[in-house]
Each structure stands twice: as C-alpha cells, then as structure tokens.
Specification:
Strand 3 and strand 4 form a beta hairpin. This protein is α+β, with helices and mostly antiparallel strands and 456 residues long. The chain has two domains: 141 residues; 252 residues, 3-Layer(aba) Sandwich (Beta-lactamase). The protein starts with 5 loop residues before the first helix and ends with a helix. Strands 4-3-11-10-9 form a five-stranded antiparallel sheet, with helices on both faces. A two-stranded antiparallel sheet has the order 1-2. It has a two-stranded antiparallel ribbon with strand order 5-8. The chain has 13 helices and eleven strands. Helix 1 runs antiparallel to helix 2, helix 2 packs antiparallel against helix 3 and helix 6 packs across helix 7.
C-alpha cells in the first residue's frame, strides 16, 4: 500500500475531523430542534442534555479553529505554488513560440520544452484541485462554527415559555342549571352563566425546507382543520389536473413524431375541466367565508376561478361546488400518501404535523413545472387574513392558508426566506381578535428568529 505524504496525512485528518464535527452538530441539532420531536413534557431533560452537548461543542470548536488555521496556511502555500507554476509555464510557452517563429531546427530542445510544459500543466491542474478542496474544507469548518447553539438554546427557551405560559386565556361560559336540568334564569329573564378562564391548546410545526431542521410543539393534538382543509383539497385537484394535461401533451407529442396530421389529433377532453362554467343561484348560497355570497344571482365563474377563490378568499360556495364536482377521494389518497394520519381518518381534522406535511407537499408542487403550479402558488401568495404568520414574519413573503371556526384558529404557511421554511400554528383560540393575533405574531417572529440563527 502506498505510504501517505505529510500533506496527504494532514488532508485525511482534516477530512475526518470535519466529518466528526458535522456528525456532532447534526446530533446536537437533532436534540435542540425537534428532529426527535420533543414536547414540553420532556423539555427539562432535553435542556440538560443540550447544555452538556454545548460544552462539548465548545471544545470541538477550538480544535476546529486550529484545523482551519492550518488549512488556511496550506491554502496560501498552494496558491503561491500555483502562481509560480503559471509564470514558469508562460516563460516556456514564450520560448516555444519564439522557436517556431525563427524556424530553428532544434527538435530535441523543442521536444524537451513541450514535455516540460505538459508536466507543468498537469502539476498546475493538481494544485488547482488541491486549492478547491482546501477552500471547501475551510468553508465546511466555517459552516460548522456558524450556528450559535447557545443562542439557539436561548431562543428555544423563550419560545417554550411563550407557548406554555404566554397565551391569552380562553373565556369559557357554562350555563347554570336548575336541579331538573333546565337553564337557571336571572332577574332579567336571561340564562345565567358561570365564566371561567382556561389556558388554550396550541400546536406549532416548523421545518427548514433545505436542511430539514424541525421543531414541533404538541404535535399529536387533533383539531378541526376548519378552512385549512381547502389547501390540501385544492392540491389534490391541481395535481390531478396537471397530470392529466401532461399525459395529453405526451400523447400529442408522440403522434406528431409519427407524422399524424394535425386535424387528426385527439381533442383534449379533461376530467378536471377548469373551463366549465358555474352559475351562482339562490340555492347555492352559503353563509360562510368568501365573496361569491355577496354577488348577484346569475353571476358566472369558471372552475379555474373557483379554484382561485377557494384559496385566495377561502370561499365556501366555491368549496361546495368543487367538492360536488370532484369529490374528496383524491384528498383522502393525498392524506394517506404523505402520512397525515388524523386527516386520513377524517379529512376535516388534522394535527399540526399533518398540516406541516401538507405544506411541504404544496411547496414541492408549486415550485415544480406542473401545469397548474403557478395558479396555486399565486392564489396562496394572495390569500387573505395575513394577520397571523404573515404579519409575524413581515416583510418576508408567504404562501399560506388560514382556518377559523369553532375551537379552531389556525394559519399555515411557506415562508419565502432565502432559505424557505414551513410554519404551521394551530390553536383553539377561536375568539380571534387583536390580542390573539398579536400572540400568534409573536410565535411566528420567535420561530423566524430561530430559523435565521441557523444562517448567521
């Protein structure tokens, strides 16, 4: 076996050390940021474990700095050698050109110079490769050291307190009952009620779409998804329509390649016909959210417009019509495919983890070249009710869908940071309003700080 040179041994050591650091940081990141999906019940143990790992990281970080300094010295030497090689190659090439211009019969000398030139160029290529490798190693070491885990722990502690103690209380009214079970009335003839305040249920899901860092709080709690269900429903239809269009386009391309005349090509007759017309009539009125309910009877929309209103305005009439036209079987299959277990059992229920997986799938689709990806992305980026996540992460752009109903006040978003991420916040704070919105904005801002600290 070939003996390693000193520089090769140093390179092997550096590569091994960098691998060790990446593994160490990955383990720490897993402990800190929910890849192990810690909940508040295990937070105390997890914090102690994180603090032990942080002290170990400090030792590793000092060693990494020494390694980085050594690599930088090697890089400077390699770049100096490269410069000297380039100067020598330039001189030899000049001598050879001079010989060619004079037509001197010096074949032996010319051949020697040409051989030297070939060897020097090969050596130059090796130096350039070494320089590239050294630069990558140094960049990797800097990446390892760039995550301030003490700062992450502090941010995570603040978020934990905010979620476990900082929410506005839910007001609960309980009717007073007579011994016979009938409502007890006051002197004004109205039913009497006991008023109590309880801490709300809250769930959070964060995932970095590039590095996979994840934080989950109360991830198994099941809520009514309210209007959030409209986003996975729309995704299931947009996906099917896009696949149908792509299959037709493939078939047409095959026929054209076979020189089939244009007039003989089959007409596109889609199952998901977004050109179909919907006419708003009195029997289709729905009192929920949306804008169609405010229009005059007889107004018309294409199904493509209904799909946009479904996401942009959370329009309930559009949802009813599209559900009747296409059913929910595709939605059920989508829930099963992405592992959204609560949604798979009942498409109108979801955990925060279900909706986190949903938003990851929506991101995959809207950033693809699928036919209807731009339509879905535009509708979700124009979606109303941005007073929750949108306000909390402003001025960053989001593609989102909110949900608001009895015992449900949610928002789920793709945050278009330089390094995009998914954020879902679910709660039973259905009173809404300024105080609740401000609290959810604080959560979104805290998660955004957590995310940004990875890249500082």
């Amino acid at each position: 076996m070939k003996n390693l040179t000193k520089s090769e041994k140093t390179a092997v050591f550096a590569a091994g050390f960098i691998l060790f650091l990446f593994i160490g940081v990955s383990v720490i990141a897993a402990v800190l940021f929910g890849m192990l999906e810690k909940t508040e019940d295990s937070y105390t143990d997890y914090r102690k474990e994180a603090e032990i790992l942080l002290s170990e990281l400090e030792k590793n970080r000092n060693e990494a700095q020494n390694t980085a300094d050594s690599l930088k010295n090697r890089l400077a030497l390699a770049e100096q050698n490269k410069s000297e090689l380039e100067q020598l190659i330039a001189r030899i090439e000049a001598d050879m050109k001079a010989m060619e211009a004079e037509f001197n019969d010096k074949d032996e000398l010319y051949g020697s110079l040409n051989s030297q030139l070939t060897s020097l160029k090969a050596l130059l290529a090796e130096r350039e490769a070494e320089i590239d490798a050294l630069k990558k190693d140094i960049a990797d070491l800097q990446t390892v050291n760039s995550i301030d885990l003490n700062a992450q722990l502090a941010l995570l502690s603040e978020l934990q307190v905010m979620l476990s103690e900082g929410a506005p209380m839910n007001l609960v009214e309980t009717p007073r009952l007579n011994p016979d079970g009938t409502p007890m009335l006051g002197t004004d003839g109205l039913p009497l009620k006991d008023v109590t305040y309880v801490y709300p249920q809250i769930s959070v899901y964060y995932e970095d779409l590039e590095r996979g860092y994840r934080y989950i709080w109360n991830g198994e709690a099941v809520y009514s998804s309210a209007s959030c269900v409209k986003a996975p429903f729309a995704l299931s239809i947009y996906e099917a329509a896009s696949e149908e269009k792509a299959e037709y386009d493939r078939r047409i391309a095959e026929l054209l390649a076979q020189n089939v005349p244009t007039e003989s090509l089959p007409e596109f007759k889609p199952i998901y016909d977004f050109g179909k017309i919907f006419t708003y009539t009195e029997d289709k009125y729905h009192p929920g959210s949306g804008v169609i309910k405010n229009e005059e009877f007889g107004v018309e929309y294409t199904y493509l417009e209904l799909m946009r209103l479904l996401l942009e305005q959370s329009d309930c009439i559009a949802f009813d019509e599209l559900r009747k036209a296409y059913g929910i079987d595709l939605l059920k299959k989508l829930a099963g495919r992405i592992g959204a277990d609560a949604m798979a059992k009942n498409v109108y229920n979801a955990t925060v983890s279900d909706l986190g997986r949903t938003m990851k799938e929506i991101y995959r689709f809207i950033e693809s070249d699928a036919a209807y990806a731009p339509a879905m992305k535009d509708a979700m980026m124009s979606s109303i009710h941005t007073v929750m996540i949108g306000y909390g992460v402003s001025p960053k752009k989001i593609a989102h869908k909110y949900g608001w109903d009895d015992d449900a006040y949610h928002d789920m978003a793709i945050v278009y940071d330089e390094h995009p991420y998914v954020l879902v916040i679910m709660s039973d704070m259905d009173a809404g309003g300024k105080e609740v919105n401000a609290y959810i904005q604080e959560i979104a801002a805290a998660v955004d700080d957590l995310h940004e600290n990875f890249y500082r």
